[in-house]
Amino acid sequence: MREIFEAELQQIGDDLAEMSRLVESAISRAGTALLTADLQLAQSVIAADHAIDQLERELDERCVLLLAQQQPVATDLRVVVSALRMSSTLERMGDLARHIAQVARGRYPHRAIAPAAEATFAGMHEAATGVAQRTTTLLTTRDLAVASTIEREDDTLDLLHQDTFAALLNETWDGTAQQTIDVTLVARYYERFGDHGVSIARRVVYLVTGDFAEERGVTTP
Amino acid sequence: MREIFEAELQQIGDDLAEMSRLVESAISRAGTALLTADLQLAQSVIAADHAIDQLERELDERCVLLLAQQQPVATDLRVVVSALRMSSTLERMGDLARHIAQVARGRYPHRAIAPAAEATFAGMHEAATGVAQRTTTLLTTRDLAVASTIEREDDTLDLLHQDTFAALLNETWDGTAQQTIDVTLVARYYERFGDHGVSIARRVVYLVTGDFAEERGVTTP
C-alpha cells in the first residue's frame, strides 16, 4: 500500500515539474514574442496553453483519486492538497504567459511595448523567466535556497512594475492610448506571474519545513 | 460518524456562504467608493479584507481536518475538494474588491474614473454586485437557475470590459495617463471578478449535476 502511495506521490511531483517546465517555456517565448513582435512565437505560446490546462486536469484527477483510494493523513495529506493548489497556480501562470502572447499578437506587425518602456519590459522578461526556471528547479530539487531566489526575482518584478507607472505618468511619456493600455496590462500580468511563483515557493517551503508564510503579502495588488 | 460528517459539511457550506456575503459587501462598497470618491467607504473595504482571508484559512484548515478524520470518498470527497477551490476563489474576489477600493482611495479627493467612462463603470458595478449576490444565493440554495444568471451577468461584464477599451481608443478620449491606467486596471479587476463568479457557479453545477463545463472559457483574458 505504502509503495503504491509513494509511486503515486512521485508521479504527482513529476507532473507538477512538467507543468512548470511548460510554463517556463511559455513565459520565456511570450516575452521574446512581445519584445521582438514575433507573430509565430506568440501564436505558438497561445496554441500550447491547452497542454498546461490538460495537465492540470489530469493532475487534479490523480490527486482526488489518491485521496479516495489511499486516504492519506498528516503530511501525506498536506502534500496532496498542496499539489492541488500548486497545479491551479501553475495553470494560472500559463494563462498569464498566454495573455502576454495575445498582446504581442494583437499589435503585430508593430511592437506592443513603446520604446520608452522597452528596457523595463526586458527586465521583467528576464525576472519572470528566472521565476519560472527556479520554480521548476524548486519543484524538482526541494532546495530551499531556490525559494529565496524566487522571492528576490519577484521583488524585482514589483519594482519594475512600479517603474512602468512612473514611466506612464512622466510628462515625457508620449505613447498612444493603446500603448498606455498595453504597458499597464502586460506589467500587471508579469507582476501577477511573480506573485504566483512566490506562492508556489512558500508552499514548497511549508511542505519541507512546516512554516507557511502566507501572510507576507503574496496577494498584494 | 455519518452525522458528524454531515454537520462538518454543513459548517463548510455555511462558511462558504459567509465568505460570499463578505465579498458581496466588499464589491458593492468598493464600487460605490469608486464612483463617488468616498474615502471612508474605500478604507472600510480595504480594512475588512483580512476577515475574508481569515475565513479562507479557517475553512481550508477545516477541509483538511475533515479529509484526515472522515476520509470521505466519491461525492463527499468532491464536495470537500470543491470547497477548498471555492474558498480560494472567494478570497481572490475579495482581493479584487480591495484593489478597486485602493484605486478609489489613491485618487481621493478626485474620482478615479474619468467622466467619459462613468456610465460604463456604473454598469460594471451593478453587474459585479449582481454576480456576488447571486453567488451567495447559489451557495445557500443550490438553485441552478441562479447559476445561469451569474453566467449572464459575467457576459455583461465582458461586454462592458470591451466598452472600456473602445472608449479609451476613441479619438474623443481626453483622459490623463493616470485616468487611462485606472480605467484599464479597474475594468480588468471587474472582468476577473465575473470570471471567478462563473468558476464558482460551474463548480456548484458540477456538484449538483456531475457536469462540469470548465472548458467553456472561464479563464479567457
Break the fold down into its secondary structure elements and pairings.
Two copies of one chain form a homodimer.
Chain A: H1 2-36, H2 39-70, H3 74-107, H4 118-141, H5 144-169, H6 177-209
Helix pairs in contact in A: 1-2, 1-3, 1-4, 2-3, 3-6, 4-5, 4-6, 5-6
Unreliable segments of 5+ consecutive residues of chain A: 214-221
**Number of strand segments of chain A:** 0
Oligomer: homodimer
Number of helices of chain A: 6
In the CATH classification, which architecture of chain A applies?
Up-down Bundle
| CATH H-level homologous superfamily name of chain A | Phosphate transport system protein phou homolog 2, domain 2
**Helical content of chain A (DSSP H or I, runs of 4+):** over 70%
Question: Looking at CATH, which topology of chain A would you report?
Answer: Methane Monooxygenase Hydroxylase, Chain G, domain 1
From the spread of the alpha carbons, the general shape of chain A counts as elongated
What count of structural domains of chain A? 1
Biggest interface and which pair forms it?
Answer: A-B, 34 and 34 residues
**CATH first level of chain A: which class?**
Mainly Alpha
| Largest β sheet strand count, sense and barrel closure of chain A | none
Question: Would you tell me the overall average pLDDT of chain A?
Answer: 94
Rg result of chain A? 19 Å
Order of helices and strands of chain A: HHHHHH
**Based on helices, strands and strand pairing, what is the structural class of chain A?**
mainly alpha
Strand content of chain A: under 5%
Distance from N terminus to C terminus of chain A (CA atoms, Å) equals 44 Å
